[in-house]
Amino acid sequence: MSTESEQEKKQAEAEESKGERQGLFESTGVYARPFWAWLVLACAATNVIFLGGKRRAFGVFVAQLHVEFNQTVSLAELNWIGDSYAAVGYMTTTLSSTVILMSGRRFRIFQFAGSAFVLLACISSAYVPNPHWLFLSHTVFHGIGSSFILSVVGLIVNEYFDKQHNYHILATTLVSGGSIASIVFVQMYASLIEAYNWRNAFLVLGAIYFVVNMSGVIFFAKRPGLGDYVSNKSCVTAVAQIDRKRAPYLVLWFIDRIMTSVVTYGMLLNLADYVRRRESSLTKASYLTLLFASGEASTYLLGALITAFTRDLLHNKLKWILIGCTAVMASLLVVWELFAADRMLSNFLAFLTGFTMGPSITFLFPAGEELTSLPGHYAYPFSLAGMGVGMAISPALTALIAERNNYRWFFLIQAFMMYIKLAALIINVVLQRCCGVEQSEIDGYRSIELDSEEKRKADEAAEEAVH
Predict the structure, then answer these.
(1) Of 244, 243, 268, nearest in space to 83 by CA
(2) Total-model pTM
(3) What would the pLDDT profile of 261-304 be if each residue is shown by its tens digit?
(4) What tens digit of pLDDT does each residue of 61-80 get?
(5) Helices marked H in 398-451 — which ranges?
(6) Which CATH architecture describes the domain 38-223?
(7) 73 by DSSP, 3-state: which?
(8) CA-CA distance, 219 to 217, in Å (whole number)?
(9) Which CATH number fits domain 243-462: 3.20.20.70, 3.30.1360.120, 1.20.1250.20, 3.90.226.10?
């Protein structure tokens, strides 16, 4: 009797489990299919590439505005216009992520809001009476839009490609790929401005960005089988719950992100103006910017290929890549300062410095996890916040000095900041190896990764969807 009773109980449990899985599939439909995760990733990467491409190509606008408004707007002010919208977007991603989580992860609503703000920024910027108004039209509106879109991208990619996923590093690398767009965007921006003027260029870009960003409204559905977070779901208050012993790693990584941002955008926003002083054509004046951006983009392509074919080859090795590339770039910048008059060598150094800076941008997401020991949905906005601070102070450390000294010592100052970055990385790695840091577990929060039972149910539902 007892044996038959146990068999009936097991059969009932099996039927109940099967019913739950069928119900999951019926309620999620196509979102449960494995290919949907790759569509989400492709859409997320495209959004980041376009947003990142604009940040890197905005130096073309800076060069043109500096020529038209040379008597009323300084180079430092134009740099702040170019940096500030991205700084606002980066520094508020933690807050935006918190709002999105507290809303129940309504990714599509926030993606639409971000798309609308970016469109508003481009349209209003086309009609400003002078560049000073861009601090309102471009900095505020585009900053809010970027914050929403970047937060949505970071959260949804970490849902579909969590830490246990075989292609986690590939996915997080692809959504750090703003550099790849620079190859096209730098010349495209220059051509648009020369053909239609900078005001109409803003209108054209607004239409393009709205179409690209709105694609996320179609594809950014929540991952099936993944429930909401427990506790208050806040990324902001999570910082208070991190073990204080880990604070030095967070501080050192934050310093690294600041220096990375200062140098990257200091180069991208000023190289076109640096060449424009002796070159009348805006398209020709952007060649150093293009070479630097191409070097940075090539590491993105290389990193994507390596992680696609080897999956986890770079797991826990990114810190060594960052240290080596940072040391080489600092030395190259010193050489550039000494031989800046040599045009051929400057072209070569522009590409090489971009190439050695590339890993610090390309691997921002996975390297942040590795060097802070935080889960991705905390490490990503924390890393972006550091980049945002760097953007905010970059004009004072780059454009202001370049304008006052006619670009004398410009590359040497960038080298000095890279050495600060190198020191922060080395100290971080030494401390982690001495203390044996492991992935942190934040009390009161459930990690974005599914527990074993939920993961099993989600995987079984996906398999049934295929069959």
Answers:
(1) 268
(2) 0.69
(3) 999 888 887 887 788 777 767 777 778 888 888 888 888 888 87
(4) 887 888 888 767 887 788 78
(5) 399-404, 410-435
(6) Up-down Bundle (1.20)
(7) coil
(8) 6
(9) 1.20.1250.20
